[in-house]
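User: These chains co-purify. Model them together.
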Amino acid sequence: MATRNLGALLVLVLAITIREVASVFQPISDSHRSAASELFTPAEGSFGSLEEAYEALRSFEILGIDKPDIRGASGESVLDKLGSSSSAPKDLFYALKVNSILKCEVNKEVFEGIASRLKAVVNGASSLLDIYYSIGSLVLIKNQSSEVDVLLADADGIFRSIKSLSQSDGRWRYSSDNPESSTYAAGLAVEALAGVVSLASSEIDQAMIGKLKRDVSKLFDIIEKYDDGAVYFDEKVDQSPLSTTASVVRGLTAFAAVTSETLKLPGDKILGLAKFFLGIGVPGNTKDFFNQIDSLACLESNKVSVPLILSLPATVLSLTKKDQLKVKVSTVLGSSAPPVTVKLVRAFSSGSKDASIIPSQELKFDKESRYHFLDVLPKNVDVGSYMFVFEVVLHDSEHETIYATGGLTQVGVFVTGVVNIDNAEIAVLESDKSVETQKKLDLAGENAVSLSANHLQKLRLSFQLTTPLGHTFKPHQVFLKLTHETKVEHIFVVGNSGKKFEIILDFLGLVDKFYYLSGSYDLQLTVGDAVMENSFLRAIGRVDLDLPEAPEKATRPPPLAVNPYLKYGPKAEISHIFRVPEKLPPNHLSLAFLGLLLLPLIGFLVGLLRLGVNLKNFPTSAVPATFGFLFHVGLAAVLLLYVLFWLKLDLFTTLKWLGILGVFLLFVGHRILSHLASTSSKLKSA
Amino acid sequence: MLKLLAFLTLSLPFLTHSFSPDHPTDRRVLVLLDDLAIKSSHSLFFKTLQSRGFELDFKLADDPKIGLQRYGQYTYDALILFSPTVDRFGGSIDLAAILDFVDTGHDLIIAADTNASDLIRQISVECGVDFDEDPSAMVIDHMSYAVSDTEGDHTLIASDDFIKSDVILGSKKIEAPVLFKGIGHTINSENSLVLKVLSASPSAYSANPKSKLSSPPLLIGSAISLVSVVQARNNARVLISGSLSMFSDRFFRSEVQKAGSADKHEKSANEQFLTELSKWVFHERGHLKAVNVRHHKIDEADEPAIYRINDDVEYSVEIYEWHGKSWEPYVADDVQVQFYMMSPYVLKTLSTDKKGHYFTAFKVPDVYGVFQFKVEYDRLGYTSVSLSKQIPVRPFRHNEYDRFIPAAYPYYGAAFTMMTGFFIFTVVHLYNK
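Assistant: Joint model of the two components:
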């Protein structure tokens, strides 16, 4: 079963649509055994505490699994705890519990010492938990060693002091100074009281026991209920429903075991408790697992009424495989029930409640497999979902007081089979319903029809479905899907008229729905049902539609989902395209032209030499000669500055130097030129 | 008073929560349940979380004392909503509180179910997921259902249409199908943050199995998503499932056989699927961080304040992935860097040394302006890495152009011969007699 809650929820949902879907509760099976071995794994040879060790050992014992070898380590700590005089009642309690399974050798003196200590605790204690652990320990000592005196002298007094903690609604308080009442505590108290009864040296006052019985039945008034018949006790604080219910069940069964009179509780409540524990499935933690298994073990052997669980190994029956309807009746732990007859009271189709399709009959019993079975499903059982109503009748009328069968049990059963598909054809019709093209289809195999139609024509698809018994079969899912090239999908439900499934697509009325998208449409037919073994999804072929142009106001097709795999891929690399440098002539060409440029200078020099130039006009006196020399040096410096400007200098440095040189040149140039001018004027005048 | 102050100052730093690279290990999870029995019936899932070091705090969804924050600080890093039917949360939690929680970068797991309450639907809608509006609808699949002796209505679905992403589902291939029983949803095609992790098969549809269909169901075929995840822009992650029972121990342990297939798997893949998925949701995988973003000119070590056009630059970044306990180098070959100004001028895939170091070199384009080095790394399932570093690019300075162009030598030569000629001419002109 899924979660309790989910189960309840589903039932609630389904209850709205069809009432009475009964959950099938399976008894404890091998899945519990494998889960137990997985859950209770001792760390390094021992469990964390004696409590955990006890839970593991007890679960293994109930499930019949070989205990892991923890005898050494746990046995030691048991003896440790028992031997120590300062152990708390709780530690003693679990040590004794572990010992009841491991059966270690414990001295009589040790037991006696503990017993006398615990008796003192019981007499003086005010807290329910202390009393519970002490009484529990004393009961355990009584069971483990017959020689120790554990009988309580003042059993009546102790009984009263525990009873004084009870509340009017059947719940209990943990101690006299704690006003909060708790169902969990009620379970503990009842178990402790059961212990007191068994330890009493003299008979307990019957009136007190009668009162306690009333308390227990009051407790059942506050029981909570799930819709599938399971009942449980809830506690708002601290404890989970499971541990609360487990505590009550333990108390209840312990009490029922010690009283001579029978405890009268409604059998369906006990069955409901069993259903609650079974409905949990396999719990995932050790505490819950232990609570479930231990409570079920208590219910299995209780003296009130032992619940019997009716379970079906399969509720899906195949007509083709000729499955038998099998029913198993067992106790909660899966052991076989007393001789019973299972009656199939009625069976009706889930849709119609009245007509029973199978006459009321008893199921046959197979001794070997311990299944009650219906030999063959009657001929008139067709595919479909049915409700089968079973009744468990005990052979021995004495057993009726011992076992709780829960009256009628209703189980939903699916009968599946192969559905025949016939007369499948697809056709394109003209507007006046005359057939233009028609093709047969084989829906069991592959088809690849290719049709074409325009918006004035219609497409008709028809087929028949018949059950193995020849009735018309109406599956839940009959969809025709048209997928356009651009992945726009249109889905139609194919309806049936009488025997025939038929759909006529009138394209004139559908152009808008098709968004005026012409082109190829793939046809796909899906037929499926829960009871149809050959459900299929098949491509039929394609139809080329020629639809009119879309008017401006036509709705646009919806955007398609983006493929996430493409959306996240790496992007294409981009590299920058650099500007292409200007085209330059090759170097040797430039050098050749440079060489050519020297020619005019050479020509100039040669010309000068040819003309026979001389420097006879250079001043002869020292001062003008100096100025002349400096003038030409200055000129050369300016020209050199230009060369430097090209080679390395920047404009500002060049201008600075040029300024300095310019002033210098102006001065020396003026002196030499005025000298030359005066000499030439002198010459002229002379 | 002093003690209280000391306590506050000491504890406040530990109260900040969402996944942050600074203290990635603070993981406290609030689990809200409809019924405490779920704690036990879904214990395997919770146990996998606890074994990975998460502190789970189980509360009933209508517990009046629950709250996500206290004194303005979030007390949880993540929220698990296993309460499909809750109409109103107790305490201070409501729709807005949960959305704020996600908006501040916290993670969320939602399990809905048939008959999911409006509140759960609203939260899902805010995450970009629309559940089937029909409260009694379930996903039905008459072709890929899980073969079962006791469940005959084909609502127990065995799906194996997983998203193809190692980061979301782990590198180990999921062999068996995943069992699913619940409600389907669709994701908004315009929402790029939602991903379908588990899709239904083409033959699936979402409807009430007990009532006859007269019109086509709204959700049909592979468009139905069974489990989806959302990664918000702030890297908060959300897992949305239409089935609470898929987390249950029963489904975890159940054997599974898909209809029409002969393979019988001893165990469904639910445990593997959900464990891996929860690792992703809780940032144990696929969370990237980028550190040591550097760029410099080739042969230089320091990052310049400005680049010149045509410079050769090297760019490098280190990317690490969080692995639950430590940052491990992230290895991939598709990390790309963009040199970006209005649009990418250069987009280059980074080379890697397989130890988390990614690097490349390229030439700065011959366009000047303010550029960015951008790494926009968005991969399926990974948190997005978005780095940008601004850097101006200038043109050549006046003195950075070529000074000696061979093609211009004739012009220089002409000038210099002219100058030589001029010098000689001056001498000859002045002193010739």
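Confidence is low (pLDDT under 50) at residues 7-17 of chain B.
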